[in-house]
């Protein structure tokens, strides 16, 4: 493994610590009794505290240093005085261990007492220092100039998502998104529990991929020698529990769909589904309004949130528009009573890409998606979907061509989907058979397998029921003003990291790399060229080759150009 100069130096420091009898990775408990936030909130002059975290900055003043320690809740300033830390004649702990062998990013434990500096900063006067973990790679710490401008920020999206552990360390504001994510789950779970509903678990590995129209991931069970599918939805299992006598059940489930990735889709995602007996979709709309208003306030302290350029208000009630009226309003086309061919021609006439595998439901879905849904910014219920679009949904009580279904749209995207659930086993079998025909026709999202056990469960009787699913990742995007789903997933799916091949570098190229390494991986382009002192031909060839292999890049910062090491 090729190591950078800084990595080599840190490994040398690691050995020097061991030579001094200091274990850089001690096993024993360190008795932390305060966090940085607690210190600031309950500050008391002279109070003794024990804290731990990463060393993030040091301002050396000779026999003393000011430093910053970062823990899980923020940063606190340290004052490390040589004679306070080392009361006797032996100053090794300060002179050697702290000043020479401790690097930014290292985990340290601190004992000390609180005091206020002359400029009014809350600070810990360090009386005890313990090494807790030596870091072998330097953190990509951003730098702030005198005018408050940030340089060298760790903001490359692919690196941030791939190395979330670094992202959370050097971009502490990112942590707030995931704290709010947990608040959302806690608030929703509490709302359901207060209503008397039961949280349950259902299988992730399923013999039939049911409950939604999507392409599944397929795996194999060696012992049973059968194919299994990663669940695309948990709906059919939760409805089995309603058959079994539970009045209300819900689950936060990890679902898996073998589909494309974009700013609002990840192949692995979290959904919440809830099913309540003796209810219908009208009741569920009111329940959803109360739930989302409650969650928005729990996460942000208000029902109003900002998402991009939009101000969204989750305060109930929400507008309600039928799908038929929505399509008619935005396209002038009435889908009522239209044949598959008429829908096909209409969609194509609207410039929508369609193909022969699409049935009526898919065609209507394409028209609505292309022409309507993007217009709904404030929370809006789109209701009464055509039957072909909803194979698990109860027929509308007033119109046999429609179903009792709604989707909740926010900022042009669906965040909730709900039905009056189909509980007629004969009707359900016919809907499954329709899905099979679509699958045979070539629709790879249609479910081509009939779940006979689910049909058997319905034959034992399921009470009138309403169910709802919410995409948790998309909801937290809106509540935290993040336009990309990768920002709200701690570890989003990424392409495999490219393995760095051994690259043969010329002596001139190695010299340029060495200059950049010694200057914290970044130099002014003109200064680097002057320092390298190469002929024009060798300079151009070297810079071209380093850029070609992805080892350096040129960045523009105002009027200046800089060369940076990559990775």
Automatic annotation (TrEMBL):
Catalytic reaction list: tRNA(Lys) + L-lysine + ATP = L-lysyl-tRNA(Lys) + AMP + diphosphate
Keywords, alphabetical: Aminoacyl-tRNA synthetase, ATP-binding, Cytoplasm, Ligase, Magnesium, Metal-binding, Nucleotide-binding, Protein biosynthesis
Cofactor note: Binds 3 Mg(2+) ions per subunit.
Cofactor needs: Mg(2+)
Domain of life per record: Bacteria
Residues annotated to bind Mg(2+) 2: 414
GO terms for biological process, alphabetical: lysyl-tRNA aminoacylation
Pfam family, one: tRNA_anti-codon
Annotated residues for binding of Mg(2+) 1: 407, 414
EC number: 6.1.1.6
GO MF terms, alphabetically ordered: ATP binding; lysine-tRNA ligase activity; magnesium ion binding; tRNA binding
The keyword rRNA-binding belongs to this UniProt entry's keyword annotation: no
Aminoacyl-transfer RNA synthetases class-II family profile domain sequence ranges: 181-496
Location of the protein in the cell: Cytoplasm
GO cellular component: cytosol
Top-level enzyme category: ligase
Alphabetized PANTHER family for the sequence: LYSINE--TRNA LIGASE, CHLOROPLASTIC_MITOCHONDRIAL, LYSYL-TRNA SYNTHETASE
HAMAP family cross-referenced by the UniProt entry: Lys_tRNA_synth_class2
Similarity field: Belongs to the class-II aminoacyl-tRNA synthetase family.
Subunit-structure text: Homodimer.
Name used for this protein in its record: Lysine--tRNA ligase
Organism: Flavobacterium johnsoniae (strain ATCC 17061 / DSM 2064 / JCM 8514 / BCRC 14874 / CCUG 350202 / NBRC 14942 / NCIMB 11054 / UW101) (Cytophaga johnsonae)
Gene transcribed to yield this protein: lysS
């Amino acid at each position: 493994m090729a190591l950078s100069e800084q990595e080599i130096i840190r490994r040398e420091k690691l050995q020097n610590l061991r030579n001094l009898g200091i274990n850089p990775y001690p096993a024993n408990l360190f008795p932390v009794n305060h966090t940085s936030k607690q210190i600031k909130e309950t500050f008391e002059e002279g109070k003794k505290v024990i804290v731990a975290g990463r060393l993030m900055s040091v301002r050396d003043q000779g026999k003393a240093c000011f430093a910053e320690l970062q823990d899980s809740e923020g940063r606190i300033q340290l004052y490390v005085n040589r004679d306070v830390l080392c009361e006797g004649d032996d100053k090794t702990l300060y002179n050697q261990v702290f000043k020479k062998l401790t690097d930014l990013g290292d985990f340290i434990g601190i004992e000390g007492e609180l005091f206020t500096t002359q400029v009014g900063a809350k600070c810990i006067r360090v009386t005890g220092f313990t090494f807790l973990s030596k870091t072998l790679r330097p953190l990509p710490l951003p730098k702030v100039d005198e005018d408050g401008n940030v340089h060298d920020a760790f903001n490359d999206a692919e690196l941030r998502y791939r190395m979330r552990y670094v992202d959370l360390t050097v971009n502490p504001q990112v942590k707030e998104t995931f704290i709010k994510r947990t608040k959302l789950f806690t608030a929703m779970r509490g709302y359901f529990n207060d209503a008397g509903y039961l949280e349950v678990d259902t299988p992730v590995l399923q013999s039939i991929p049911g409950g939604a129209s999507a392409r599944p991931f397929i795996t194999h069970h060696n012992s049973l020698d059968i194919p299994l599918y990663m669940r695309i939805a948990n709906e059919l299992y939760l409805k089995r529990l309603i058959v079994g006598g539970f009045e209300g059940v819900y689950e936060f489930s990890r679902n898996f769909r073998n589909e494309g990735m974009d700013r609002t889709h990840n192949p692995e995602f979290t959904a919440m589904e809830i099913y309540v007996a003796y209810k219908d979709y009208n009741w569920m709309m009111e329940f959803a309004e109360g739930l989302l208003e409650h969650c928005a306030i729990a996460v942000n302290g208000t029902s109003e949130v900002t998402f991009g350029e939009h101000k969204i208000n989750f305060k109930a009630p929400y507008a309600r528009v039928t799908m038929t009226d929505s399509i008619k309003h935005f396209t002038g086309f009435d889908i009522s009573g239209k044949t598959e061919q008429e829908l096909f021609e209409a969609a194509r006439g609207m410039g929508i890409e369609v193909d022969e595998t699409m049935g009526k439901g898919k065609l209507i879905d394409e028209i609505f998606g292309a022409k309507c849904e993007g217009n709904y910014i404030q929370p809006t219920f789109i209701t009464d979907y055509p039957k072909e679009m909803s194979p698990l949904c109860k027929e509308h009580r007033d119109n046999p061509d429609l179903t009792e279904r709604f989707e909740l749209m926010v900022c042009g995207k669906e965040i909730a989907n709900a039905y009056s659930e189909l509980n007629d086993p004969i009707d359900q079998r016919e809907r499954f058979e329709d899905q099979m025909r679509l699958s045979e026709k070539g629709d790879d999202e249609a479910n081509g397998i009939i779940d006979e056990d689910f049909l058997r469960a319905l034959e034992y009787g399921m009470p009138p029921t309403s169910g709802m699913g919410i995409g948790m990742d998309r909801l937290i995007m809106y509540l935290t003003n993040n336009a990309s789903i990768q920002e709200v997933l701690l570890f989003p799916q990424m392409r495999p990291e490219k393995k760095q091949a051994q690259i043969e570098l010329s002596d001139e190229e190695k010299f340029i790399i060495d200059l950049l390494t010694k200057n914290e991986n970044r130099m002014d382009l003109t200064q680097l060229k002057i320092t390298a002192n190469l002929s024009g031909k060798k300079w151009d060839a070297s810079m071209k080759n380093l850029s070609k292999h992805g080892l350096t890049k040129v960045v523009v910062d105002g009027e200046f150009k800089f060369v940076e090491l990559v990775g």
